[in-house]
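Ops channel
N.P.: pipeline sanity check, posting one input/output pair.
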């Protein structure tokens, strides 16, 4: 089984319309690796062929874990059937709750980015990266040396597409003006972040691929769930303690009521169906450490919102 493919802007790459984010608790050393392997197998069985991770994710543990667990997966589904992306430039480990108040350290020098790409490829044991994102990059970080160096890396085949993972609209607009360098943007977009739709249209018109992350608003667009294990408590703590997550909670409250009272599909599926109804979106990415959740989200690729539900989301 493989999910439907969508083009990544004008890059020549196609990827499944739903992707898996190998990050968060999935890559945490407190989450047993055999269980992480079961989640990755569920991703494979569900037909997802796009996996996104990051050099600093899960305290720098996500990439090596993903690399180890992909080796048996590649014997089932060949490497060239997958789209793998990672990120670099951020030196502060992500994922630990203790780091929520830590000021991020970044280094976007060409030397550091080249070294990071080499380390990511080695960690993932994947020969090349389909996409590489500058993580939290701003236009102020751009240098001619970096932009030329990234283009050279793309030409050599070490990376196939270059992107920026950003939450700042002015930087998204800057990407549109630098389409010769950048192929894709990874941004926050979902039913609780509908203000992104105008800039998504602009990036799509410029030929950029746009990948949606934070579709579920870090869980805030979903009804409260019972806490069963430390994984659930970890995600709850992140959602409550992280300043950006608290802002998401405020924005998500009205749309959560709409999603939780409709009966067409699960609230999570409705959120992904809403995002995928946008023609400017190449793929929507989610993270999970739960097999059932993987299967639930994968099934959203076949879901379509009614006009009434779409209108209710837009009016919330």
């Amino acid at each position: 089984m493989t999910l439907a493919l969508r083009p990544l802007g004008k890059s020549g790459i196609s990827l499944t319309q739903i992707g898996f984010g190998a990050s968060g608790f999935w890559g945490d050393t407190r989450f047993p690796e055999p269980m992480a392997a079961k989640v990755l197998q569920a991703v494979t069985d569900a037909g997802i062929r796009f996996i996104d991770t990051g050099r600093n994710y899960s305290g720098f543990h996500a990439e090596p874990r993903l690399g180890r667990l992909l080796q048996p997966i590649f014997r089932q589904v060949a490497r060239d059937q997958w789209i793998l992306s990672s990120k670099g430039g951020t030196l502060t480990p992500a994922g630990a709750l203790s780091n929520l108040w830590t000021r991020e350290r970044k280094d976007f020098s060409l030397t550091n980015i080249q070294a990071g790409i080499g380390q990511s490829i080695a960690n993932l044991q994947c020969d090349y990266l389909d996409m590489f994102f500058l993580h939290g990059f701003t236009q102020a970080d751009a240098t001619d040396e970096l932009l030329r160096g990234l283009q050279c890396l793309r030409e050599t085949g070490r990376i196939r597409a270059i992107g920026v993972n950003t939450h700042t609209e002015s930087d998204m607009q800057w990407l549109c003006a630098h389409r010769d360098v950048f192929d894709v943007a990874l941004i926050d977009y979902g039913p609780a972040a509908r203000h992104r739709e105008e800039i998504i249209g602009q990036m799509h018109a410029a030929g950029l691929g746009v990948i949606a992350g934070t579709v579920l608003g870090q869980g805030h667009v979903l009804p409260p769930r019972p806490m069963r294990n430390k994984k659930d408590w970890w995600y709850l703590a992140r959602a409550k303690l992280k300043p950006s997550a608290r802002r998401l909670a405020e924005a998500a409250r009205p749309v959560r009521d709409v999603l939780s009272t409709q009966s067409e599909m699960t609230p999570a599926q409705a959120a992904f169906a809403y995002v995928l109804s946008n023609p400017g979106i190449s793929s929507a990415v989610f993270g999970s450490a739960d097999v059932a959740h993987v299967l639930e989200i994968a099934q959203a690729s076949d879901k379509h919102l009614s006009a009434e539900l779409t209108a209710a989301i837009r009016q919330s």
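N.P.: looks fine end to end. The two ends are 35 Å apart (CA to CA).
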